[in-house]
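Collaboration report, partner site 2.

Our partner group contributed sequences for two proteins of shared interest, and the home lab folded both. The records are reproduced in the order in which they were received, starting with the first partner submission.
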Amino acid sequence: MEYSIVFESILLIGFMIFIGVILAYITPLNDNTKQTYTNIIVNVAMPCIILTSIFKVDINHNILRNIMLVFALSLLINLFGIGLGWILATIFYPDKTFQREIALLSGLGNTGFIGIPLCATLLGPEGALYAAIFDAGVDLVIWTVGVMILKKSTSFSLSSLKTMINIPTIAIVLGLIFAFINYRPPEIFVNLTSQLAALASPLAMFYIGLLIMSISKTQFYSVKSKIVIPTVIKLVGLPFVVFILIVLLNLDGMISKALLIQAMMPVLTLASILFTKYDADDKFGAITTVISTVISLISIPLILFLFTKFNYF
């Protein structure tokens, strides 16, 4: 892999976040702005990235087998991160303050907003497809295990199942059905999805830039010691755990690269929204998202450089 492409991609992400910071002075982040950005990214741009990736890849039995493998490994990796975060939070915060939040932030990364566009840039359509499947695994964990942890309940309700039925998930299912029956939509639809897919990365980074400016110094200092565990696990711990897993399983090169990139992602951007919905500390979620995203601008290229240097990427 050309390391210059990695550096350029991360630099572009940094510039787009900076533009989001500037936009915050023009249009401060409020509930309406947050909802608008989230709706466009999740319900328009993300499904189009998924469909575009599927349309550009020749789906065969080998690809389908890889898809199932990536989905299973996504569940395993995310649950491992949550479990590790839960254990460390219990050790360092025996009063169970922020235990739920730390656990979820340690396992769930920004695999949709940053991971899929980054894989599309670095790995091409097939890499973006595997990244989208990995993100589907993240969604499944969020709306099952994540909801149970936030609600402090071990029961699984029908309403939790309904939340997993969203537009990105539908896009994955429809796209795979089209691929399985060897159907290619009209070229105008393919071009439309390709152009709308380009919205994902800029809008997601603008959103993070807006989020940065919505956090006060007082809010940051009140939780700064608690963001260490999820940030270190997400940006350092999980990538190296996934690397060991890849070596042990001797995985395919494209799968390995997609898994590594997704494992390096900062904390879930939608954490604050999720925490608000289930009465957890949404500001802690937002602060951890922002700090881990800023640090990831250094950690992602650094870790990729180390893996590339030793011919593991």
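Second partner submission, folded after the first:
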Amino acid sequence: MVYEPGELGEALLSRLAAAGLEPTPLLLSRPSDVALDQLQSWVEPCFDLVINAITSVDAEQAEPVPQETRHRLHDLPVALAERAAFHAIAMMNLSSSQIFDGRKQQPYISSNPGNPLSVLGQCQWDCEQSLRSRLPRHLILRTGWSLERLQERVRSHDPSEPLCLSSRYRGQPTTWSDCARVMTAVVQQLDCGAEAWGTYQYAGCDTLSLYDLGLELLEELPETQRPHLIDEEDTWMRLEPANAVLNCKKIRHTFGIQQLSWRQVPAATKP
């Protein structure tokens, strides 16, 4: 399991160990600086599955650093996939709703092609296609809105300035701890011999607008720290798909994984 410091990696490592799956962890403190040949040497023939838990969720931060973003979201997982293919090992990799342009009126299904609006989304979409062409036994998991990212945007906003969150943008808030739960459940079934490779999607069960999510997140803050919420588009949203809603029926029908609400997130991850 390749991961970086943060809630997803720590939660996933803990869950895999608790499930008795004996992960071999590789912690990369700076994934963007990793030499790909050194990374490939970590993959051993005895591995059953390579899990790449390194991802990015903030398109605004990724946009000014395209080379760094491509290294961590495309070059790194592709190098892992090439080594995995050499040893006939399967691989799990993360993607997200950022690969879509948001123009579809209905929820996106796993077979819908990407048409990204951002550097981040383009790197994830290119990575998906590279994995499909290099590694038959791959499992790509697309996830929805990162709740932690949106919580941080609300909490860090200057309370004296209006906070713009548009109701035109819709998605499904998803916590990292929930992603770790889902990834562990999938790995457990693969470990039992399930041959269910391909692309899957998972996001929280609640679909709502950025504006409505903002209203709920502001309730978590003391009154003196709450900015005035305005239903308007901010500049960072132009890199986001207006419709980020994912159809998650495939992962439920294949692996029996039910969607949870972000409101069910453990209290330890809330402020």
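Feedback sent to the partner group on the second submission included the following. The chain has a mean pLDDT of 93. The chain is about 35% helix and 15% strand.
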